Every structure is written in C-alpha cells, then in structure tokens.
Fold these 2 entries.
Entry 1:
Amino acid sequence: MTVQAHIVGWGKYIPERVLTNDDLTHMVDTSDEWIRTRTGIVERHIVAEDESTATMAIEAAHEALEIATLRPTDLNLIIVATATPDHLFPATACLVQDALGATQAACFDLAAGCSGFVYGVGLAADLISTGNYVNALVIGAETLTRITDWDDRATCVLFGDGAGAVILQANGSDGGVLSSVLGADGSGGDLLYLPAGGSRQPASHQTVSEGLHYLKMKGREVFRFAVRAMPAATRLVLEKAGLTVEDLSLIIPHQANYRITDASAKALGISKDKVFSNVDRYGNTSAASIPIALCEAVEQDRIHRDDLVVFVGFGAGLTWAAAAVRWSAPLPTAPLTRRKKIWYALSYRYAALRSLVRRFVRWLVARFTRE
Ligand code: ACO
C-alpha cells in the first residue's frame, strides 16, 4: 500500500502590532504610493519585544494540533523552516518541541529562505512515504524585522513577521501531497544574504557598526529570478503529478510582491483569482508566508475537498520549491469542545512543568556529582 502525506491540521500566528506604509514614511524617504504600486504591500505586522520566531511558531503549532485533534506526543517529526531562528543553535524546532511537550519528535531547522516551508512539506511528505514517520509538523516562522535595516528604504518596506504551520499525516487513501520539486542555484547566494553573524564573519563591534547584521538584497535581480522560477516550478510539480495547469484550483505562492504573482499567473495562462494573495496585509514574511496564506485561504472558503492546490515559493539561496496537494481534510472544521480546549491548555502547562523539572534535575545532577 502506498502511503500518502495528507494535511490534517493548519494554524497561523500573526503578531498584533501593525506598521503601515504611512508609519514608514516617518522613518525613511518613501511613500505609501511607491510601496503600494511597486509591491502591493499596505501594512505588515511586527513582533512585540517578548516575541520571537519560536514563540510565534509555538502558537501556530497549537492551532494546527487542535485542528488535527492530535496530542503533541503523536508528532514524530518537527521541521521549522526559518531564516531567522531564535539562535544558530539549538534549532528553533527543539524549542518548539519542548514547549509543546512533543517528546517523540525528531526536530531540525531548515534553511532555504522563503522556499523553506515548501522544502519542509516536500521533505516531510517523502519521509512519511517511507513509513518511518506518521505525523509531521512543518512550520514556517520568521522574525525578519529583527534583521531589517530600518534606514534602508529598499528593503525595510518589504518585510513582516509571522508564523504558519501544517501537520502532515500518513494515510493510505488517495490525495494529500501528490508531488514536490525542490531546487537551488547557489550562484545567486549573494543576491539576498546576511553578511555577518556566521562563521565567515562572526559578530563583532566592526560588523555591527558597518550594519553587516542586516539583510542585504539586490531586489531587481531577485525579482527577475522569481518571475522565471515560480511558473517553471508550478508547471514541473504538476507534470510530476501527471496533471496540468487546467486541473489547478488554487495557487498559494510565496507572498513577496503582487507584481511577481501577477506575472506568474500570466506566464501560466491562469486568471489572477486562482492565485491567492494577502501580501497587502502582511508584507513578505519569508518562510511563513505560504502557510499563513493557506490558513487564510481556508478561512475565506477558497479551498474545498478534492481541490488541487499548489504551494510555490522562491527565496534566498537562491532556492525554489513547489508542492502539489489534493486537499483531503473535511471543511469547515468542527470547533473544539470546551473539554478539549481545557485538555490542550493543561497539556501545554504540563509540557512547561516537565521542561522545568528536567532542567532542575540536570542542575541537581551537575551540582552533586563530580563526573
Ligand atoms: N521608496 C521610494 N523609492 C524607493 C524605495 C522606497 N521604499 N525603494 C527603492 N526606491 C527607489 C530606488 O532608489 C530607485 O530609484 P532610482 O531609479 O532613482 O535609482 C527606484 O525606486 C527603483 O528601484 P528598484 O529597486 O529598481 O525598484 P523595483 O521596481 O525593482 O522594486 C522591489 C523594488 C520591490 C524590491 C522589487 O525589486 C522586488 O520585489 N524584488 C523581489 C524581492 C523579493 O521578492 N525578495 C524575496 C525574497 S526575501 C527572503 O528570502 C528573505
């Protein structure tokens, strides 16, 4: 029996604080008109001081678990796709695991820029098809505003923060993730990168004073790459699934710029209403943009059972990726009962307590043993 990976849970987290184009006009030499016409962005959300990629990822994971009605211990795999992890190590996926109490899950972060979430979906689906994993949580989460140079008008108007998650589950029935394509062209690495803070150029007073801890981008070149990569990856993933553009119900593309998604729709010969867009309200949230858009597409009744949905992204690396999914989860989802809500709240409290106890025991062992 072939095992397919089906999407059984999804969730998102958007930070509360909104930064509008008008707000940005007080920070850099720009205008609402320029940002809207060149990108389609109207506003974006920014993390609060006590939030991070992990805290947002955890919130999105809560929602996804509750929709899937799974226990955290049912998860065998957690992948966090991010370019802005809480730390270089440990992996943000491990922080998520600890907070959820997902004690049976293997965890790692995935660095593929804005394509990271789709890379994660493709990888998790392949791992599930081996029979070794049953439930995989794939999260895209970013705090890009923490690596944004707020004096650089060419980049600071583009980015926002947020997180989105899906749970993929092994199932013998047809549908779910039908195919995926993952690609990269490392020769374009310098078009979009974070110069300092890694082993090549460790953080120092000099790197900070030169602003090398901020994201650098050659926007025009990335744009040119994106308008080629998105339609090509979409066609390829459909071909791999034995389908064509005519079979498509909805494309959920990486939300970077409405001009890129419009150009992709044109190149594929499909109408714009088959391409989901919410870039106006969130800006570019990198690896988080596709799962956030997916959640909104579900909320807006844009996805139905048996629909063919394609996720397609491009980003730093350079990378690109697409996944074709036959939607199989029943919609709308039943709301959680009060009892279930209480169960989840208690289980997250228990996870926090468990983590504290384990830290305390480790401290005790270190204090009272010599070797
Ligand atoms: N306000 C006003 N003027 C601006 C601004 C601004 N915020 N930013 C740039 N300009 C000016 C430039 O200085 C330039 O002026 P000049 O002609 O006098 O030199 C002019 O506007 C045009 O600049 P371009 O960079 O050519 O503008 P373009 O139309 O290419 O739009 C943009 C720029 C929006 C960045 C576009 O190139 C783009 O969307 N690129 C793709 C970026 C992307 O998708 N990145 C995704 C990956 S992110 C990740 O992986 C983390």
Entry 2:
Amino acid sequence: AAGVARDGAGQLTVQGIPAAELAETFGTPLLVVDEDDFRARARAFKSGFEAAFADLCGGADVYFAGKSFLTLSTARWAAEEGLRVDTASGGELAIALRAGVDPAHIGLHGNNKSDAEMLDALTQGVGRIIVDSVDELRHLAELAAQHGLTAPVMLRLTPGVHAHTHEFIATAHEDQKFGLSLAPATGDDDGNVTGRSPASVAVEAALAAESVELIGVHCHIGSQIFEADGFALAAQRVLAFLAEVRDAHGVELAELDLGGGHGIAYTAVDAPRPPAQIAAALAEAVRAATAEHGLACPRISIEPGRAIAGPAGLTLYTVGVTKTVDVDAPDGTTAARRYVAVDGGMSDNPRPVLYDADYTAVCANRAPQATPVLSRVVGKHCESGDIVVKDVYLPSDVARGDLLAVPATGAYTHVMGSNYNALPRPAVVAVTGGAARTIIRRETVADLLDREVDPQDPAR
Ligand code: LLP
C-alpha cells in the first residue's frame, strides 16, 4: 500500500504508525488496511474508465466487487468515492444495504440465487440483478410477476474467452457453471434440440416477460488478469451479439458490464497493466466494434475487486517457532530451508493452499540486517500445506517475537477466512490520517463456543 514505509530505525510503518505499535495495540494476526490507498485505487478506476469512455458513451460506472473484501467500512469507502457495489449473496447484499449504499447502485450476482435473495433484491430496489441462466430468468420473472414487481435484469454471457490465469478462477470458457453461452447449444435445458445459443434463448425470454426489464448484458472472463487483450476480445464478441439482438428483435440494449478481474502484483515478478491502460485498450475495442456493427455505444460498467482492495491490505504476524530442514537441491546436493512459523496461516489466508498463490514477506519490527536466507513462512494449522509464503529470503536471525508483514492481502482473505483448528479470526484495522481504528473486531474463542448447542448444559 502507498502508506507503507520504513522509519529511521528500520521498522515498517503504515502511515507513520510502527508495525510493533499496531501489533501491540490490536494483536496479531492482524489485517491492516490503508484506507487512503483503498480510496485512491477506487478513484483511479473511476476516473480512468470515465475518461476513457467519456466521448464514446458519456463515461462508465465502476462497481466495487464486494466479494473481494466487503465490510460496512469498505462498502462506504467505495460509495463515497462514487463507486457502486456488487454483491454475490443475500449476506453481501445485507452488508451493502446496511452500509447505506443506494440500492439502485447495487448489483446482485450469483449462479444459484435463492427465492429469498431474489425477492430481497426486488423489494429493496436493487438496481441490477445479473441473471446467470435461462432457468433463473424464468423463475425470477415468475417471482417478480407474483409480487407485482419488475426485475431489472442484466444477462451474464460467456463469450468463450480463456483468461490466462489459474483454472479455478477463469470463468468465461464453456465448460463451467457460470453464464449463458454465446455458442449454439446441442440441446436446451428441456432437452430440445434448438441449435440456438442459451444467450439468445434468454434474451428472447427476457424481452417477452412483462415482469422483466432487460437492461443489458454482462460478462466476466476471470480474475488476476494482467493484460487488456482478453477483456477486449470478450467485449468484441459480446458487442457482436448485441448487434444480433438488434437485428432479431429491433432493440439495442442500453448497458454492457465487462466484469472484474484486473490483476495486482503479489510479488516483484508480477507486472499487471495499470487500470488506465486497460481502460484505453478496452475503449478502443468498444469503439471499433460498435462502429463495425453500427451500434450506439452501450453504457459501460466494470466490477474490480482485487485491484482496489488487494494492495491496500497487509497482514502482520508474530513469529513463533523457527527450524531448519534439509531439502534436496535440483543438482543432487543437500540444501537447507528455514521454516518460520507464524501465529496464523490458512485460516486467515487460504489463497496459497487453494490456488498455489505466491506472496512475499518482510521483517516488520526492525531493520533486516542479518544475511537473507531462503525461508518458508508457514502457519500454525495441522496440515503441511499450510503455507503462507512458499519461498522468501528473510534475515537469518528472524526469531520468536519478530513481526512479519505479508503485503497485498486486502482481497479474498478476510472474506475467505475460516475457523479451522478453532482459530478465532483476526481483527481488521483501517488506517487513515495517520491513525488506526478497528473495523472488524478480533473473534474470540467465546464467539466460537457461543454457537455450540450443548446438550449437557441445560442453562444454554
Ligand atoms: N465480477 C464477477 C462477476 C466476479 O465473478 C468477480 C470475481 C469479480 C467481478 C471480481 O473479480 P476481481 O476484480 O476481484 O478479480 N477467490 C479468488 C477470486 C475469485 C474471483 C471470483 N469472481 C482468489 O482469491 O483469487
């Protein structure tokens, strides 16, 4: 994050607050969020995309993808910076609403929304419901009709673009659960051979349903994407589809959401394109495709999550046990690897074990003076896969009581945390104006016990 530096004594600081002071005040593991950095990244997306699309379609809307790091505070920061908020469940929707986000500026996603979630969105006046299948479209139309309401719908399309990223988070190729394919299907959901694409079947059904207002289409090609070409190709394909819709039905849909997925640097080898460059390349692709098809440019929106929240966070851990283990080097010799165990792990950041994600770590409470040695930072869970940072050079004298900081942990950590091994989840603190305050309190073992229904304790 922008506010991270080293002070005169070599200690890591966040907006001038020493790491040791944060650890002392709030405990560890601790997720520290630089609020100013979060807000600056939100603003950069907003201004970058607004500028790139100003001439073409009067600007662009940016939704903060709540799934990456949704709390009352982050939702408010996003909204205060002029962003809208994307939600993926009734729980996320409740957080965004409680934060005071204008319902008209909230989107509801999900490939399997419950009736309660859909009804909640309809009655609360959520601005966009992103529909994922023909089945869901029909069901939502029925629900809305039963309640005398109109569903504001975006259809999520799969343009068949393979984002160059980890397979589990690449979502716009064909054989996966999300979206409506643009490719003709061999059979529809009822088993009839139609030769039509699920996307065109859904458009027809949406236009025919009186309780549905079809606002536009959506696509999301994956996550942690560094280059603009995948986004541009998806935009081209979806715009070609909008031209087909116009030719078949005589309607030009008003909006096109190009999803999230903008990548960040977790380690020094990562070099994602800055948002403004992605915006410029996308605007060029949209300009060319709309000209080719004679379409008016739809209103463009995007949904970045990681690229706003990720770099703004860092996790502070306290070192416990260290040990050195012999490993077989590729050249047949034996080398040593230092294991540095910290007081958290896969329960506060499951990304290394789930996606083989790389992070780095630095010694945070003092200047790193001793010789750097190849180290592996591990957690305290009962699994050998419980790795925080696979390979990192840490000073050889890092020892019990030292603090380690793992940067870029704002996204998909707090929201994916668990209580594995009955570890209470860490606190989250926000730093702004040189002061830190708790935004999520640390969980306690009492919180965990509180959910137990104990048959041996009649008092409960
Ligand atoms: N919009 C939609 C429809 C999405 O499915 C996602 C992410 C986003 C926006 C935001 O993507 P972002 O800008 O944050 O990349 N847990 C995984 C990431 C899963 C992303 C799922 N969808 C991870 O930790 O890498």
